[in-house]
Amino acid sequence: MTPEPNRADLAKDPARVSGMFDQVAAKYDRTNTVLSLGNDRFWRVATTRAVAPQAGQRILDLAAGTGASSVALARSGADVVAADFSPGMIAEGARRYADLPNLSFVEANATDLPFDDDEFDTVTMSFGLRNVDQPKKALRELRRVTKPGGRIVVCEFSTPPSALFGGLYRFYNDRVLPRVARVVSSNSEAYDYLNESIRHWPDQPTLSAWMREEGWVDVAYRNLSLGIVALHRGTNPS
Question: Quick one: three-class SS letters along 139-168?
Fold first, then answer.
């Protein structure tokens, strides 16, 4: 019997969001590639370059999903921990990448990470901060587990600065994406939530301000794909 689709809402209850991602785990990466028109691969490359992983480093990839972003980091020889609060995502990633000895999968809640203080050289989070019910607390937790002088890289949907392009983007999200999601996703209602969460997510300067509030310094961002996505960076002060 097929389970009833689980749809999160803007309250972002962790159990509901986790359950929603459990249901889309098997087709998650393929669906993202289709709905982003292939841009997800470009965003992943840009994030990997911003992290600049090196052999001997310990890196936390939070909200790693099935580990596609984590694999790109692990290929450098760094010790990578792929963490996510969806057990379904973690199980799928561990199954796919069991042959990589320097990549481990851990179930973790972004607001209460199961790691020691100052454990990681770099922490990164792609398209996950938006799904956390307390994003500022998550930024605080990420700084706690980052070594002094270590870095953070956050890749997240954002606000296109061009009003014209922003209108086209909203049209795609509101009219086109839901129809495509019904064809390619195992839980199309999850992508209705995706639209809502993007629409209500703060713009680039606001997220940068949140990072500074939680103690990160040298905070900066770079727009990708005309501002559909922004790559935020910061440093944990020594």
Answer: HHHHHHCEEEEEEEEEEEECCCCCHHHHHH
Residue 59 DSSP label: E
Predicted TM-score (pTM) of this structure: 0.88
68, 43 Cβ separation under 8 angstroms: no
User: Which stretches of the chain are DSSP H helices?
Assistant: 14-24, 28-35, 39-51, 68-74, 87-96, 135-144, 163-171, 177-184, 188-199, 204-213
Give me the count of residues in the chain: 238
For the chain, list the domains and their CATH numbers.
14-235 (3.40.50.150)
**Cβ count within 10 A of residue 238:** 8
CA 156 – CA 85 distance, rounded (Å): 17
CB contact at 8 A, 63 and 139: no
Annotated binding site for S-adenosyl-L-methionine: 66, 84, 109-110, 126
Chain centroid offset of residue 26 CA: 17
The set of long-range contacts for 79-83, using a CB threshold of 8 Å and a minimum separation of 24, is 80/53, 80/104, 81/105, 81/106, 81/115, 81/120, 82/106, 83/107, 83/108, 83/113
By DSSP bridging, strand 103-107 and strand 79-84 are parallel
Structure tokens at 17: 């969001």
The string of pLDDT tens digits covering residues 109-167 is 999 999 999 999 999 999 999 999 999 999 999 999 999 999 999 999 999 999 999 99
Could you list the residues known to form a binding site, using ranges.
66, 84, 109-110, 126
